[in-house]
Amino acid sequence: MKIAIIGFGGMAGHHLNHIIPRYNDANVGEKVEVKGVYDIKSERRQAARDLGLVAYGSPEEIWKDDEVEAVVIATPNDMHLPYTEEAARHGKHVISEKPASNSELLVSKMYEAAEKYGIVFTPHQNRRWDCDYLTMKEILDSDVLGRVYRIESRVMGSNGIPGDWRKIDAQGGGMMLDWGVHLIDQALLMTDAKVVSVDCSYSYEEKEEVEDGFDLEIVFENDISYRIVVDTNTFVSLPRWQMYGLNGTACINDWKLNGKIVTCLQRFDDKLEGIKAGNGFTKTMADRRKETVKESPIVPATVRAWEFYANFVRAIRNGEPTIVKKEQVLRVCHLMDLAKESARRREVIKETF
Ligand SMILES: NC(=O)c1ccc[n+]([C@@H]2O[C@H](COP(=O)([O-])OP(=O)(O)OC[C@H]3O[C@@H](n4cnc5c(N)ncnc54)[C@H](O)[C@@H]3O)[C@@H](O)[C@H]2O)c1
């Protein structure tokens, strides 16, 4: 299946050099080949030519190329919708990079266009196949921690908002659309329960017009409170994941999956001794005796990341439903819209969905 890429920047290179070859190497379906690219910048088109790809001079040249069945849209976020509408009108199937677009309303228009012209449309929610996320999901589903009441998912760095367009609101900049869309997608897949409230604050430490980070608390109907933190100005990071259950705690520190699971063998310890802590004394916060807990390593989940392209090809050839479902994408967008509103009003928004 021949495809084209629109917007030949960082993520387009990742599709070309990693994601598509990984799918082709897995030998699980019809091979996908990138025939060519269109980028608004001539130097990026030249870079494509240098790689032996077709450099289309305009999007129309892609629409007219009958060999090209689908496009990957990897432009700044504000262009995902117009290119999807154009592609759909010309009968090309679409993978849109995330976030599909800047709001729930705009994303519904993408689905409307796809449905009107009968094309396959899917946002690329690739972090559903992140090993750290899948491992935490397995831990939750295994019940090893007992009733889980709190999950914390953080990504932290010190490099600020990257690049140019990510700093511009009209282009879909800001860390909510950049990272929030992934981490909220993971949160909504982690549990089947409905969301009952959303509480979010944005940070503007870099004094840009868009947020350079945010702190979001989602409460689910099953009493799990789920915190998502994105921070671009922290030089010492907190763990990527913490999951708290009545019978134990799981922690993944970093992308290499360093971490552990500590479960409880004896909840109340009558031999517990107090410790000097700061200028005081505490038993409550003293380390447990090691006989009362069990420490287990993190066992990484099996990841089949090639499933995304395999599903896309089967959706085109056999009408298989897309793995990334419309109702899931719209629910993530709805939550992002509420988070933005919560941050603006500095209020908790109570809504069940
Ligand atoms: N799924 C992921 O893990 C992931 C990671 C990074 C980026 N992304 C997404 O990929 C998209 C691109 O991000 P990036 O980091 O590659 O950005 P980038 O700035 O590196 O690349 C964007 C490219 O689009 C081109 N472009 C700009 N306007 C255009 C237009 N109107 N028509 C055609 N080309 C145009 C630019 O010249 C540039 O080459 C964004 O939507 C981003 O959110 C996804």
Give an overview of the whole structure:
With 353 residues, the protein is an alpha/beta fold. It has 2 domains: 123 residues, 3-Layer(aba) Sandwich (Rossmann fold), CATH 3.40.50; 148 residues, Dihydrodipicolinate Reductase, domain 2, CATH 3.30.360.10. The chain has 9 helices and 17 strands. Helix 7 packs across helix 9. 38% of the residues are buried. The mean pLDDT is 97. Bound molecules: nicotinamide-adenine-dinucleotide. The site of nicotinamide-adenine-dinucleotide has 23 residues, from helix 1.
The CATH architecture category of the largest domain equals: 2-Layer Sandwich
Say what oligomer this is.
single chain
What is the spatial order of strands in the main beta sheet?
16-13-12-11-7-10-9-8-17
Which word captures the global form? elongated
List its traits:
single chain, 353 residues, alpha/beta, Rossmann fold, 2 domains, six-stranded parallel beta sheet, 9 helices, 17 strands, elongated, binds nicotinamide-adenine-dinucleotide
Secondary-structure map:
Layout: E1 2-6, H1 10-26, E2 33-38, H2 42-50, E3 54-55, H3 59-64, E4 68-73, H4 80-89, E5 93-97, H5 104-117, E6 121-124, H6 131-142, E7 148-156, H7 175-190, E8 195-203, E9 213-220, E10 225-231, E11 241-245, E12 248-252, E13 259-264, E14 275-277, E15 280-282, E16 293-297, H8 307-318, H9 326-345, E17 349-350
Parallel strand pairs: 1-2, 1-4, 2-3, 4-5, 5-6, 7-10
Antiparallel strand pairs: 7-11, 8-9, 8-17, 9-10, 11-12, 12-13, 13-16, 14-15
Helix pairs in contact: 4-5, 5-9, 7-9
The protein binds nicotinamide-adenine-dinucleotide.
Residues 6-12, 38-41, 44, 74-77, 79, 97-98, 124, 126, 163, 178 line the site of nicotinamide-adenine-dinucleotide (NAD).
